[in-house]
Amino acid sequence: MSNYQVRKAIVDLLLRIEQDSGYSHLLINNEIKSRKIEPKDESLLTEIVYGTIQRKLTLDYYLAAFIDKKKKIQPWVRMVLRMSVYQMTFLNKVPDHAVIHEAVEIAKTRGHKGIASFVNGVLRSVQRKGVPDTSTIESTSKRISIETSHPEWLVERWISMYGNDITRDMCQANLKRKALTVRVQPLKISRQKALDELDKLGFETRESEFSSQGIIIDKGNILKTALFSEGYLTIQDQTSMLVAEMLHAKPGMDVLDACSAPGGKVTHIAEKMENKGSIDAYDLHAKKTKLIEDKAAVLDLTIIDAKQGDARKLQEKHAKESFDRILVDAPCSGLGVIRGKPDIKYNKQEKDIYQLSEIQSDILEHIAPLLKKGGLLIYSTCTVDKKENEDVVEAFLEKNSDFILDTSLFEDLPAMITGSPGITEMGLQIYPQTFYTDGFFLTRLTKV
Ligand SMILES: C[S@@+](CC[C@H](N)C(=O)[O-])C[C@H]1O[C@@H](n2cnc3c(N)ncnc32)[C@H](O)[C@@H]1O
Predict the structure, then answer these.
(1) Nearest to 150, CA basis, from 251, 243, 35, 61
(2) Is the ipTM of this complex over 0.95?
(3) Strand 180-184 and strand 233-235: pairing?
(4) Taking the model in full, what pTM does it have?
(5) What distance in angstroms lies between residue 244's CA and the mean position of ligand 1's atoms?
(6) Smallest Cα–Cα separation from 65: which of 9, 10, 129, 3?
(7) Where in the chain is CATH 1.10.940.10?
(8) pLDDT of 21-39, one tens digit each?
(9) DSSP-derived pairing of the beta strands 440-447 and 304-308
């Protein structure tokens, strides 16, 4: 594929992601497969698409300095300008003159001479004058918003909850790549053996301190290994691995995972149970239960019964106090995983947070009777927002006097997390900047 064709594919992809509000990671993978993008172009395509989405608001701020406010710009032309300015400002892989040349070529073929000369004019001005200085933006929230490309309502919200410094660090961390992490299936391979095998294959790896099963991959493509395809390893963020570590499910126990798909945490729980006992794994969406089944099958785990069910109605299916352990890994706004799914920061709205917090409270309220006395319940989300995290837990504890927060959680956490800035009376909020993981919330409750 020529450079021009790769750039053209990037513009199409950016347009589709914006117009369909599609998840960029899924659309990028489809594009690579369907257009048969060569491996040498794969990483550049991914880098430009992700980068352009990640920096969208910053790029638009830069472009606004060079384009008349009243000028109507077609969406594809804006995409060409954004991706070109992204490459000129944040990447140094291709010289500016080549970036401009390719942008003009796309504009000529897709549009006409007039558009090509507009694109050429704007990009040449950016090249000549440089992008505008953002340090003169007076309002703190606006400056963070523009510099890190997060919507201002979200920056203001985070500032009101966590202050300027944590918010700025969080927004900046969301722009950086995180290392891929995997979990070993300990019934099939030990972590040490997996590390040795990966070492032989030329991977650069480290042990994760979040989980005895976790491995951080600094270099190497795990997807192409038999260790992955044969279920010795599975991809999971380190924060998610904390859940099964903290749930302490033992072989022979009865466990409920109320919101289970695609099955990352429930398979980890089954591993901790040495594949002995029983796990009822529900998800609201019937088609997603197949994802849980597939994951369990590749990992050779047989104790998971994946089925459709609304977590708010499980009392119709199970008697009170049926379970030793319950996981509520609730549907959430996902503001902790912006780094991997940058679309989230533009697609989520503040009202979603309020709606989700009601669903989360509802799920907890209806699940609570199913826990045995002395049992443990973990509530977790992959978001950073008090309304969906601490507030949900606090309201639940106020209403349900038979539950208390299991404060031994705080001694139970891995040493590197103890004393981390997100620990509160209601649980552990992990910020994406603290350990360069996803942002995540987790707490552990017990019935007395
Ligand atoms: C954060 S995800 C769970 C991730 C999963 N625990 C894992 O580790 O792979 C939340 C899941 O809850 C499901 N969900 C949403 N509302 C639900 C409800 N009322 N009852 C059960 N599941 C629900 C969603 O379909 C989604 O798959």
Answers:
(1) 61
(2) yes
(3) antiparallel
(4) 0.94
(5) 16
(6) 129
(7) 3-129
(8) 666 777 777 777 776 777 7
(9) unpaired
User: Regarding the domain with residue range 3-129, which homologous superfamily does it belong to in the CATH classification?
Assistant: NusB-like (1.10.940.10)
Please tell me whether residue 182 adopts helix, strand or coil conformation: strand
Q: What is the dotted CATH code of the domain comprising 238-447?
A: 3.40.50.150
Question: Which segments are annotated as binding site for S-adenosyl-L-methionine?
Answer: 259-265, 283, 310, 329
């729980």: which residue's tokens? 269
109 CA to middle of ligand 1, Å?
Answer: 45
Two tokens, residue 156: 């203001």
**Dist. CA 296–CA 248, nearest whole Å:** 19
For ligand 1, mutation pick of 245, 256, 283 (most atoms within 8 Å of CB):
283
β 278-283/233-235 pair status = unpaired
Delimiting residues of CATH 3.40.50.150 domain(s) in the chain = 238-447
Residue 392's closest CA among 422, 367, 358, 366?
A: 358
Question: DSSP assignment of 109-176, as one string?
Answer: HHS-HHHHHHHHHHHHHHHHH-PPPSTT--SHHHHHHHHHT--HHHHHHHHHHHHHHHHHHHHHHTTS
